[in-house]
Amino acid sequence: xxxxxxxxxxxxxxxxxxxxxxxxxxxxxxxxxxxxxxxxxxxxxxxxxxxxxxxxxxxxxxxxxxxxxxxxxxxxxxxxxxxxxxxxxxxxxxxxxxxxxxxxxxxxxxxxxxxxxxxxxxxxxxxxxxxxxxxxxxxxxxxxxxxxxxxxxxxxxxxxxxxxxxxxxxxxxxxxxxxxxxxxxxxxxxxxxxxxxxxxxxxxxxxxxxxxxxxxxxxxxxxxxxxxxxxxxxxxxxxxxxxxxxxxxxxxxxxxxxxxxxxxxxxxxxxxxxxxxxxxxxxxxxxxxxxxxxxxxxxxxxxxxxxxxxxxxxxxxxxxxxxxxxxxxx
Length: 330
Prior knowledge:
Elements: H1 3-20, E1 30-35, H2 43-58, E2 63-68, H3 76-85, E3 90-92, H4 117-125, H5 127-134, E4 141-156, E5 171-174, H6 178-186, E6 190-193, H7 199-204, E7 210-213, H8 215-220, E8 229-245, H9 246-251, H10 254-288, E9 292-294, H11 299-318, H12 321-328
Parallel strand pairs: 1-2, 1-3, 5-6, 8-9
Antiparallel strand pairs: 3-8, 4-7, 4-8
Helix pairs in contact: 1-2, 2-10, 6-11
């Protein structure tokens, strides 16, 4: 087991006791609840716990954050709704679950958009990312920073996927993002959007044949128990806004607002690095667990079918400015 993997497991299990159960807060502390759908062994949990520790230290104990992983406070859409309504303070989930409120965010989920992690970071951490995050404020969400899910890869229980033809007819769980749904329809698959919290059961019962997520999350969510085939398609890179109820954020003193935003941005870089460092060991662990991996599928066969049409759909709705700006940064 790699050092990074051991760190994730240790921090995940320790963190639940420390933050999800919680310690008595000081009389002056503002206590906030932070929910996310990923397992305790995932980088989201490790980074969330570190975020909570740093925020408490930097705020001098004025802010305390309790972390609730594994969908214990609801599905992706339920937690977003709870943050908007103020019954939950902070949540973290994939960008596709926010595009119904801020449709231009859909640009980040266009297939084969990012050439590298460095390209994605330039977009997410720069002026383009700032503008896209601001679009969420009309839905009473303050996006503190953008973390990541990572490079999406295909798994299924029926057959190896070496090229675009192999996916035809497969029922694939997707996010609700229009770009994801359109891309899989173009490939001849049957896209089936559903929350992440429902996915393992859907795979186990064969309600869907497969799904697409980074190898780190495929491992941490134990999808290898119900999926035989893995194909490293890397067909999209998924970001993850870390959002807070805007009213509650605005009510904080400016120095505490600064603590939250600066720490969220700091942890965005750290969380992405955790995923990057764990990719190789996660792939090896999946193969050792019995998954059959196609490590070099014909990615061009996928790209030729989906890229142009999906981009045309986006440009038709929102114009080409933001897409052109992202491509220029490649």
